[in-house]
């Protein structure tokens, strides 16, 4: 899967930096253009974006989807936590407004887990970039052991090759 184009307007901060101080994962606003934005964390490290793309082309998502099926309760819990995190990133006043006047947007925020994945029925993996960004930002993942084996090294050895300093 090709990584989606990043819109800088959704950035709200840096969640994770590499050892050289460059942003590796950024936080995103839960609302963009008055609509729910499904991604709380965005992978920005050029090396990790490249690595995840390569791993996806080699079948990484299929491995994660197998883990979803064999470890469904953990994945559902993970997606539910992601939905709560996105909701809590919105001000109480905005939450009340959405809940009362924009029920569709509220439902989208409250029922969409990591990357907006619906967690009813077990959820899913969607894309490796997304899963790695969440894993690095929150510090846990239902398929953490699998990610630790697959996504290595977590930092590039030649920053200048990837446009980093």
Can you tell me about this structure?
With 165 residues, the chain is α+β, with helices and mostly antiparallel strands. It has one domain. Helices cover 47% and strands 12% of the residues. The protein contains 7 helices and 5 strands. The strands form 2 sheets. Strands 1-2-5 form a 3-stranded antiparallel β-sheet. Helix 4 (92-101) packs across helix 5.
Categorize the overall geometry: globular
- Beta content comes to 5-15%
Tell me the radius of gyration. 16 Å
Q: What separation lies between the terminal Cα atoms?
A: 28 Å
Domain count: the total is 1
Number of strands: 5
Quaternary structure annotation:
single chain
Number of helices: 7
Order of helices and strands: EEEEEHHHHHHH
**pLDDT < 50 stretches:** none
- The portion of residues assigned to helices is 40-55%
Report mean pLDDT, rounded to a whole number: 92
Question: Largest sheet, order of strands side by side?
Answer: 1-2-5
| Class computed from helices, strands and strand pairing | alpha+beta
Largest sheet: 3 strands, antiparallel
């Amino acid at each position: 899967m090709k990584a989606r184009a990043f819109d800088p307007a959704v950035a709200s901060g840096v969640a994770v930096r590499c050892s050289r101080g460059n942003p590796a994962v950024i936080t995103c606003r839960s609302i963009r253009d008055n609509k729910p934005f499904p991604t709380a964390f965005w992978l920005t490290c050029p090396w990790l974006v490249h690595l995840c793309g390569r791993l996806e082309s080699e079948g990484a998502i299929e491995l994660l989807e197998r883990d979803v099926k064999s470890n469904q309760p953990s994945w559902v819990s993970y997606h539910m936590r992601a939905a709560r995190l996105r909701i809590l990133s919105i001000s109480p006043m905005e939450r009340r407004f959405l809940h009362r006047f924009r029920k569709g947007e509220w439902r989208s925020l409250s029922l969409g887990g990591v990357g907006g994945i619906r967690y009813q029925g077990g959820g899913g993996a969607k894309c490796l970039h997304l899963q790695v960004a969440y894993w690095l930002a929150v510090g846990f993942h239902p398929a953490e052991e699998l990610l630790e084996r697959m996504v290595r090294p977590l930092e590039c050895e030649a920053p200048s090759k990837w446009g980093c300093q």
